[in-house]
Amino acid sequence: MREQDYEENGPNPRDGNARESSPFINNAELGRGNMYEGKNMALFEEEMDSNPMVSSLLNKLANYTNLTQGVVEHEADDDSKRKEVKGPRMGTFIGVYLPCLQNILGVILFLRLTWIVGTAGVLESFIIVFMCCACTMLTAISMSAIATNGVVPAGGSYYMISRSLGPEFGGAVGLCFYLGTTFAGAMYILGTIEILLTYITPNAAIFKVTDVAEESEAMLNNMRVYGTCIIILMAIVVFVGVKYVNKLALVFLACVILSIIAIYAGVIKSAFDPPDFPICLLGNRTLSKRNFEVCAKFTESNNETKTTPLWGLFCDSPLLNATCDDYFIRNNVTEIQGIPGIMSGVLADNLWSAYSEKGSIVEKKDQPSVAGSEDSKMSGLPYVFTDIMTYFTMLVGIYFPSVTGIMAGSNRSGDLKDAQKSIPTGTILAISTTSFIYLSCIVLFGACIEGVILRDKFGEAVKGNLVVGTLAWPSPWVIVIGSFFSTCGAGLQSLTGAPRLLQAIARDGIVPFIQIFGHGKANGEPTWALLLTAGICEIGILIASLDSVAPILSMFFLMCYMFVNLACAVQTLLRTPNWRPRFKYYHWTLSFVGMSLCLALMFICSWYYALIAMLIAGCIYKYIEYRGAEKEWGDGIRGLSLNAARYALLRVEDGPPHTKNWRPQLLVLLNLDNEQLVKHPRLLSFTSQLKAGKGLTIVGSVLQGIYLDKCTETQKAEQNVKALMSVEKTKGFCQIVVSPSFRDGISYLIQSAGLGGMKHNTVLMAWPQSWKQTENRFSWKNFVDTVRETTAAQQALLVAKNIDLFPTNQERFTEGNIDVWWIVHDGGMLMLLPFLLRQHKVWRKCKMRIFTVAQMDDNSIQMKKDLQMFLYHLRLNAQVEVVEMFENDISAFTYEKTLMMEQRSQMLKQMQLSKNEREREIQSIRDESRGSIRRESYSSPLSIVQDAQALLTNDYQEEEAQLIHDKNTASRSAPAAEASVAAAVPEKVHMTWTKEKFVAEKHKNKDSNVSGFKDIFNMKPEWENLNQSNVRRMHTAVKLNGVVLNKSQDAQLVLLNMPGPPKNRKGDENYMEFLEVLTEGLDRVLLVRGSGREVITIYS
């Protein structure tokens, strides 16, 4: 299967994910030359650049072929044949029914089914076969629904599972299916060798032993040597000419069918003329007739009694007075018919099970027997022994491979004339046929063959004949030769199909480490995949026991079938619009029962093999999830995730969660530069440290402008933010908003980010370091309004100051403290945040310290005890310290800070003309210029307006520079001005403007400002005229800052209660000054403002 048949060559530029290709979507170039001819479709001309005409679509769809993607054969005329053939020609019978029949009927039917019937009995064997056949029938129904839901390119089961359950499940199950197919090849090869060495040419064995006890080990070594030779031979055959394997498939199938017909013919013949296969019993014990012919102790010849070879096997000499085995002396030798026939009534004896331990003798139940002495040794005696311990679940694992092969039709989907019709019909008919054959054979074997012969796995009691061959007509050799070629053919088919399956998975690119196996010879032959397949197959050969290999491949096939059922059930329950199978006889309950049955059979066969298989699949799943290429195939798991997310969102209450379930759901506000890159990446680092991968995180940013104009920049910004989130391991969602103003965009994010109950409850942002610069888009007004809006929305606010000094995710603090200054109760946010931070390895070794402030009337000792008890109930480990802050006089430094703050505020109010005010000034100049132009013809109105604008701009810039200079001067020298603060305010002048007057007034204002500043800073201010509220606030900020610096200057992080902004908006600029003074001198500060609700509780 080639990758381009169902996948585009390149990724989708919008999301980077490869999309499913289609025979008609996005193929507008077809017929584009004559697309615009005529005027009938002029209205849709622009649409035709991306969407084809319906006529083009239908033409493309009608010519769409889905040729098989196997090897290109060596013959030169094959290419021409492919060009001549417009579509595959195989129908249901040849394309699906016969391949399924050939793959299902195989080695287990001929080599193990009689033994299973004899060991488990007819009833339990019937249950085993019925369970396995029901499992495959339910899987076939699910597979038919998936296969008829659209065109299935070559790739069969892997394609169906991966496109229905996604690349992770598809890759995991696809590789498991590949391993199952590979081990199936090993099982068929082992079956071939067993037939060869046991029933055709026993003398060809390389390792020969005389001791019966060592015979099984020698047989295993023979299997290993011959198996290795045969697998090399088969690999060469597949490598040189795979088309000959395909041509011989019908020959192999004919062998299987003839063998089955011979079995039914033998059953009919046994009704009136049973075949003569006598078996020898000693007491009730079955004897192996490999070393003797006469079933008797003595023979009479010429009135002389002579001992037989059987006597010599049990006695130490051929003489009548020899010392013999005790059991041999006490019991008689009898001979019965091994194939009594269908009318004999032997079915009643074979109804029940006869499980046994390893090494026990095969015994006939109703035969009289006298027990021998307990110390008699049975090793070396010609009994028929069981080679393994038998029980019900083990037989299920051995039998299940005989019902696999139901995917043979879907694997040939590319060769079918009408795959959507042929796959369901052919597969279900094949399973029905083979189920009838298996179930009828169980009853017929039990009714025709003696129980001891059925339990004789290798036919030792019938001179080494194949047990099922003894029943066949006209000769046992029909079954022996037929089964030999059947197993050879099945082994070749496995070595042909498994490499192509691996090649398909490798070319999909979902499992990086197997991509080398997607390459092959120039003709498409998967050379590397064939080598790997042969190597894995050799592992099965080295195990050397067919009974041990069968459960292994049962696991992998059952896992594959389980996920086929799961895929159908998921698609049906999701009711996705694209789920419209032509096969209507399915239901999600049938798929669910089939999936449950597959899972049950896995653990019935072998619980430890099942766990190993699931572990392998799980590891592959996680590997693909972690390292694999992202694919968007519209799979059911993605749809299931969407449905589950919708269900969970509906279940999550829209109201606030309980305090015990509260955790910070963050909205992180990022600043982007002109290149749409994040200005402060450490904010995302801090986010991942605070979240540790839990809870909701929405990373938002605002672009100023109109969305239609900023669409490309928005996509670029989103890509940059997502890339940084990936680097910083911040798990969450990105949301970029385009707004005419930056302020409104922030408001939109706070109001509308999130969905339903999954909304943010905490806003994280960086402190605007350049808030004093008016050109900064995140100015102090935006910041203060954001604080107000989070409070109005009942959301917590975290402001990280000096964010660029915060640690990255790679840094580790080996020591230090996280200091919490708990001034006012905010619902417990200050307590919770350090606990969450210390979960991350960056902060794990930091200690938590909590400081609280005691006033004059407070008992600081009792406060400390109460706080320690509170933390104990909160299960938080922290050091507690109560800092006493008594009332004292307000310092001169505080007055100085307040004076400078108020001066600056008033200056800004005078200098920062609003946009409307500037327009009114310019308009007045324009109006005056119109009047003066009539009086002075040499003056141009336009030049006056331009000059006025320039003067206003220059005046504004000069005054701003003067303000900064004066502020710096004031900070270095003690103020000694006695003039009032109002004296520094320039007087507003109301007059009619002309150009000359405007220039004169400009210089007048400038001079008055300069002289005013000189007067202020050369005399002591009148502190009584200052706003006493501002003085008190500044006093708190200065004093608290001094206390914090004294205790926490060396702390790794300081968390402070963030005071709220003033209710009167006139003092907003003062609010920024208070916060600046409060945090001055601290490296890393996190200002915390609670949401007004409790977020931490002492109760369980």
From TrEMBL:
Extract the ranges annotated as region (Disordered).
1-29, 912-932
Q: Where in the cell is it found?
A: Cell membrane
Q: What GO biological process terms are annotated to this protein in UniProt?
A: cell volume homeostasis; chemical synaptic transmission; chloride ion homeostasis; potassium ion homeostasis; potassium ion import across plasma membrane
- Under which name does UniProt file this protein? Solute carrier family 12 member 7
Source organism lineage?
Eukaryota, Metazoa, Chordata, Craniata, Vertebrata
Query: Gene name, please?
Result: LOC101805840
Q: How does it sit in the membrane?
A: Multi-pass membrane protein
Q: Which InterPro entries match?
A: AA-permease/SLC12A_dom, KCL_cotranspt, SLC12_C, SLC12A_fam
Q: Which reaction does it catalyse?
A: K(+)(in) + chloride(in) = K(+)(out) + chloride(out)
Q: What molecular functions are annotated in GO for this chain?
A: potassium:chloride symporter activity
Q: Which domain of life is it from?
A: Eukaryota
- Which family does the record assign? Belongs to the SLC12A transporter family. K/Cl co-transporter subfamily.
The alphabetical list of record keywords is:
Cell membrane, Chloride, Glycoprotein, Ion transport, Membrane, Phosphoprotein, Potassium, Potassium transport, Symport, Transmembrane, Transmembrane helix, Transport
Give me the stretches of Basic and acidic residues compositional bias: 915-932
Q: Which residues form the SLC12A transporter C-terminal domain?
A: 797-930, 998-1100
- TM helices/strands, residue ranges: 90-113, 125-148, 169-190, 225-242, 249-268, 388-408, 428-454, 474-492, 528-546, 552-574, 586-610
> Which GO cellular component term is one of those annotated?
plasma membrane
Q: What is its main location?
A: membrane
Looking at the record, the residues that make up the Amino acid permease/ SLC12A domain are 96-268, 389-667
